[in-house]
Amino acid sequence: MQTKQAIIRSAVDIAERIHASTILLPDSYTSERIGIETEIPVVVMPRQASDMLYRIIPNHVEKEEVVLHERTRKVAVAGYLEGAISGTIVGVIDGLHFDSIIVYDPRESYAVKSLQEHKGLVNSDAFRAVMKLALELALEGREGRHIGTAFIIGDERSVLRASHQLLLNPFKGHDPHDRMITDRDNWETFKEFAQLDGVFVISDEGTVCASGRYLDADARSVRIQQGLGGRHAASAAITAETEAVAVVVSESGVIRVYQDGEQIIEIEPGGLGWMMLP
């Protein structure tokens, strides 16, 4: 039996014994899965171009292990927030110098626990819908170009008081059903208005109250990563002044989540992509 097949069989056995929600496999293992059956969903993770680092710089086994373990954990957290993963994962790591199996529960991550403390937002349909929409925008852009936007979720009355319209609110007066972020049929409308300056303001229930909104929060009190612009600073600041959570999509395709004025999640969908295997 080949080594990779033996590792997959072991991963499946562990997953079934602990009732894992998902098995994560690197794409180099997909052909080895033939003949191995399981009812547990299998997700494939493409390798990143940054793996070239370990071909150029030898003797970095320890660093390689840390990087690949961290990437697997990030995939699990991103999948959980998107709703594609529901609990503990069993992941196979394919390094240049080693192969290993990791068991990880994304619900134990700082990001998920922090969001759960915020009125259970991480389990809300509204937050999951925003994360899915943000991931699509980050990966696909709009009309052939990358776009940046932000979604401010929850405590909408306070957020509206601390902001103003840059242009007429395109959602004002429309039926609440047509403004629900949880209804995927509305996403084309949201994607279209994501190209406008300003942010989306969304209620806890998932109703889009406004877009093209300018945040008046004082950003001098928050600290964000160097190189990030006004959208990130204002979004972080509004979460410091209100009970809202901000999901910000950069033109570079990176998604960041802010709560209480601090960044708690950073996701690079281009490097964390996955696909479900039948």
Automatic annotation (TrEMBL):
Listed transmembrane segments: none
GO molecular function: adenylate cyclase activity; ATP binding; diadenylate cyclase activity; manganese ion binding
PROSITE patterns reported in the protein's UniProt record: DAC
Homology family: Belongs to the adenylate cyclase family. DacZ subfamily.
Gene: dacZ
Top-rank lineage group of the source organism: Archaea
Alphabetized Pfam families for the sequence: DAC, DacZ_A
Catalytic activity: 2 ATP = 3',3'-c-di-AMP + 2 diphosphate
Residue stretches making up the DAC domain: 115-270
Taxonomic lineage of the native organism: Archaea, Methanobacteriati, Methanobacteriota, Stenosarchaea group, Methanomicrobia
UniProt keyword annotations, A-Z: ATP-binding, Manganese, Nucleotide-binding, Nucleotidyltransferase, Transferase
Species the sequence originates in: Candidatus Methanogaster sp. ANME-2c ERB4
Cofactors demanded by this protein: Mn(2+)
UniProt keyword Nucleotidyltransferase, yes or no: yes
The protein's name: Diadenylate cyclase
Catalytic activity, EC: 2.7.7.85
Role description: Diadenylate cyclase that catalyzes the condensation of 2 ATP molecules into cyclic di-AMP (c-di-AMP). c-di-AMP is a second messenger for intracellular signal transduction involved in the control of important regulatory processes such as osmoregulation.
InterPro entries per the UniProt record, alphabetical: DAC_DacZ, DacZ_A, DisA, DNA_integrity_DisA_N_sf, DNA_integrity_scan_DisA_N
HAMAP family given in the database record: DacZ
